[in-house]
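Narrative summary of target 7.
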Amino acid sequence: MWVSGFFSKSNMAAKQLRAAGLIIFRRESFRAPLEYLLLQTSYGRHHWTPPKGHVDLGESDMETALRETEEEAGLKQDSLDVMENICRTLNYEVRGKPKTVIYWLAELNDYYVPIRLSREHQDFKWLLVDDACELLHDTTGVALREVDDEIRKVTDFYVNIY
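Modeled conformation, tokenized:
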């Protein structure tokens, strides 16, 4: 489902589980393969996920996505091109409670910007879409494939014109 713009600060964070993050990709050149950033948690089952976290009361979803990306991966907003018009909203249950996660797509401006993990994560990988989807929860993998298709369509369009 496409969602444009921001969610308001009154996002009912206290009433439901809500998180926000960024699906971050990089490429060495415009025609190079896209690589997606995944972080491996240092807790629980050590699952893999794009940078994301819980929305704090009074915080917008976009503010959360940017804050969590900086906290978890060390990537500041100025090192990213956030595509506010391309996002995915996921809905699923965690321990019997409904959870909503919104991800925006973002491209890393400099291919060589280092990743600095927080204590919440023990590893990171830059992966092609198929390899990334093998590590992700089904719903997150579907969202990643959808945004990857969108980027490829745009890239193919420009490559064929120019």
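The first strand starts at residue 17 and ends at 26.
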